[in-house]
Amino acid sequence: MDVYGLLGNPVGHSLSPPMHEAAYEARGMDATYVTFEPDRDALGDAIRGASSLGIAGLNVTIPFKEGAIDHVEPDDLAARIGAVNTIAFPEGGSAGADDRDAVTRPTGHNTDAAGAVRALRERGFADRDDSLDGATAVVVGAGGAGRAIAFGLAEAGATVRVANRTVERATALASEVPDASGHGLDDLPTLLADATVLVNATSVGMESDESIVPSEALHEDLVVMDAVYRPRETRLLRDAAATGATAVDGTWMLLYQGAAAFERWTGRDAPVAAMGRVLRSSFEANTDQER
Ligand code: NAP
Fold first, then answer.
1. Nearest CA to ligand 1 atom 12
2. Which PANTHER family match (predicted)?
3. Residue 186 DSSP SS3
């Protein structure tokens, strides 16, 4: 049996195990997906241990996405983003991080970028005449998710404007992303006036029913995606729908980053319909439990 897993701390409420197990079932694979919660200072040991044990692939989540890059061979996009959420192990395992031979090191990838782009393409732009390629996109947030989304959108052909509470982080990120600009949150109304994409990549909206974007700055030409997926329907998405904009909730990005990880590990198309069905039902069961 192939073993896949998630490294994070905490990982208790993760929706990845049921989503990936649904994929294995749909593809008739003899595989399982488990969660691991290593100590915060034991990331390197965990990755080396997984490698020695013959784990087939790992996802990485908070707080390890940035640190994991030091223990793998990152691909070009993950290196530019500075974070890894998917690790693939070479066939037959490897010596891991301390091995001097790069060929045998686990490889590191960032599927958050591809997940965000696919969510916008398939859920946001599917019924529109225009596309993500050539769009002007406003990304709010310059943390891990903001970095992945900004690089992903630029690769997809969008012009990226980053707005962040800490302006220096926005300008620093914008200086790394081709043709991007960095701004403070006060600039949002101006930035959004001629934009067709808005992504919230901050955690605002998760803990409280707040939106980081003033509702008056939204308009019907926008595709609005929230990376926040708990709750699914955030204040930002409700405001977006009320203005006639297209709203894309964060579970789509979650689904498509998982699909991209599955495809990276197995070389097979991900069964996204089955993964999405289980993601949604697990999400609802989880939310009921938390109530
Ligand atoms: P992070 O690295 O900690 O970054 C947090 C970002 O939020 C920073 O830009 C921070 O601004 C901003 N922020 C936090 N509190 C704020 C406030 N009160 N007012 C204004 N800005 C605030 O976190 P992350 O890993 O990027 O995650 C961000 C969100 O994306 C989380 O909700 C996470 O669950 C979600 N996410 C979703 C997916 C998905 O698949 N749907 C994938 C990854 C992440 P400063 O720089 O000024 O501190």
1. 202
2. BIFUNCTIONAL 3-DEHYDROQUINATE DEHYDRATASE_SHIKIMATE DEHYDROGENASE, CHLOROPLASTIC, SHIKIMATE DEHYDROGENASE
3. helix
Please spell the DSSP secondary structure of 20-75, one letter per residue: HHHHHHHTT--EEEEEE---TT-HHHHHHHHHHHT--EEEE-TTSTTGGGGGSEE-
Q: Which atom of ligand 1 is nearest to the CA of 145?
A: 26
Could you read off the pLDDT of 232-251 as tens digits, one per residue? 999 999 999 999 999 999 99
Residue 140 CA, ligand 1 centroid: distance in Å: 9
Cβ of 149 less than 6 Å from ligand 1 = no
Q: Roughly what angle, to the nearest 10 degrees, separates helices 144-155 and 111-119?
A: 60
238 and 278 in one domain? no
- Residue 206 C-alpha to ligand 1 middle, in angstroms? 9
Percent of the chain with pLDDT over 70: 94
Residue 59 annotated as lining a ligand binding site: no
Structure tokens at 160: 């990226």
* Report field, pTM of the whole predicted structure over 0.85: yes
What is the domain range of residue 283? 2-109+253-290
Cα dihedral 274/15/83/68 (nearest 10)? -110
Enter the tokens of residue 165: 């509470």
Mark whether 13 and 102 lie in a shared domain.
yes
> Which of 11, 14, 65, 165 to mutate for ligand 1's pocket (most ligand atoms within 8 Å of CB)?
165
- Say whether 65 is catalytic: yes
Q: Look up the CATH number of the domain holding residue 78.
A: 3.40.50.10860
